[in-house]
Amino acid sequence: MKILKQHKNFDGHTCFWSHDSAETKTEMKFSTFVPHGEIKGCIIWLSGLTCTDENFITKAGAQRILANEKLMVICPDTSPRGLNLPGEHDSYDFGSGAGFYVDATTPGYKDHYRMDSYVMNELFTVIKEHFKTPNVSIMGHSMGGHGALVLALRNPDKFKAVSAFSPIVNPVAVPWGQKAFKGYFGEDQNLWKGHDTCELMKAGRKHNSKILIHQGTADDFLEKELKTSHFVETAKTSGQDFEVKMCEGYDHSYYFISTFIEEHIKHHAEYF
Amino acid sequence: MKILKQHKNFDGHTCFWSHDSAETKTEMKFSTFVPHGEIKGCIIWLSGLTCTDENFITKAGAQRILANEKLMVICPDTSPRGLNLPGEHDSYDFGSGAGFYVDATTPGYKDHYRMDSYVMNELFTVIKEHFKTPNVSIMGHSMGGHGALVLALRNPDKFKAVSAFSPIVNPVAVPWGQKAFKGYFGEDQNLWKGHDTCELMKAGRKHNSKILIHQGTADDFLEKELKTSHFVETAKTSGQDFEVKMCEGYDHSYYFISTFIEEHIKHHAEYF
Lengths: 272, 272
Description:
The structure is a homodimer. The first copy, chain A, is of the alpha/beta class. Chain A has helices at residues 55-59, 63-69, 115-130, 143-154, 175-185, 189-193, 197-202, 222-226, 228-238, 254-269, and strands at residues 2-9, 12-20, 27-34, 41-46, 71-76, 136-141, 162-165, 211-216, 242-247. Chain A has a single domain (2-269), classed as 3-Layer(aba) Sandwich (Rossmann fold), CATH 3.40.50. A nine-stranded mixed β-sheet of chain A has the order 1-2-3-5-4-6-7-8-9, sandwiched between helices.
């Protein structure tokens, strides 16, 4: 693990790191904010399409709140980098910047696009061994909201809490998800369903905490890609505890996230 | 005035604008955050070298505090754009991205690099006529901290308060200032002194508020370019009310600014 940049921030430190990943077989980057003194735990933040390890840590205004709550955050990049797989760099919603937090099974991609295992194995090891905390929760935005919900439903005991901003909750039913899952899994729809929040809840998966979701009503992607109503219906039917807040006039941007990040971090803090 | 982008944010709006400037004879951009409801006044934020209208509004985490204090902020770009003057794009510390908030007198530059008049005339008109508030204060970072201090000392009645992060306080005595002032004013050192915080205080200029400055001790530019101690000595001698806070371990970045922006905005709010 190499520190690329380090900045004192709210009495703690915002840092940018790189390390060699055994899962992706590439160098991977991530950012952290670690408050001064003892910490209670670590939130994993998963970013959306086109993002890197930098978006959340520069734009969300989370450090002040994390410092108050004595929680650190770790923000991985959204895909492996530095490869040149077929079609990897052709579009914003597949390949580089769009790993969807799954382990791919298709030729070429299966050797590197292992973001599920990267987060669940390597990032967890970093959190435990380097940052010395066994307590982890997860949140994310858009594709990263999908990642947070899916990883928490697939591994409920690993996360104390889970929440999301503008998540893709039903990827098997929307263009972004269908394109990505076809690219990463091929045509086998059973594999797709194993990485879909609504399908996982239908299959009986639950998280023990109350899942908090904020969604802007002026979000251009709401109708076509995010489908928040599918989450609400399925969570109700399946008995998952949740709170979905529809936020009048807010869009898909980090201005929306920065407005409500305090509520999310405080929600997580209650579970640590 | 055209709105380029608008995002709901902390119940108000973060917006990006462009307009035709009569002072610079170019299209100029600026950003704003305006809280919901009645506002008490407007803070002008001046950015540092290489910045645009975007840095502060995306990275400083100011909107939450501005919304609480019922203050708006307006952040102009740091120079005219879209020109091709001799030497304008050759270095990061002169020309584009480096207007230094002065009215140039050198050939070519004198027709466009009029950032002093752009702020004091056109931006003030925008604040009064479009945003409907007569109450204005000013703050900035590095080159923009220089701009805030100099404009406030040259026009004390126009600003209710003034503060700065890591300001260049004595440009006539440091490489950044000497290079810029030579380029914008030529060799006439009397013109240079009219835009130097320390020289203005020595010549009897004062601001009626307490000038607040935060400066990181781990700032790479402190010794060579910023020279905070020159401000402290001159302000003491000249009787200017001030508070300079040296912040242990903090650098020149927006992580530093975001840590202390709440203190600056609350300081300004006391004068509105």
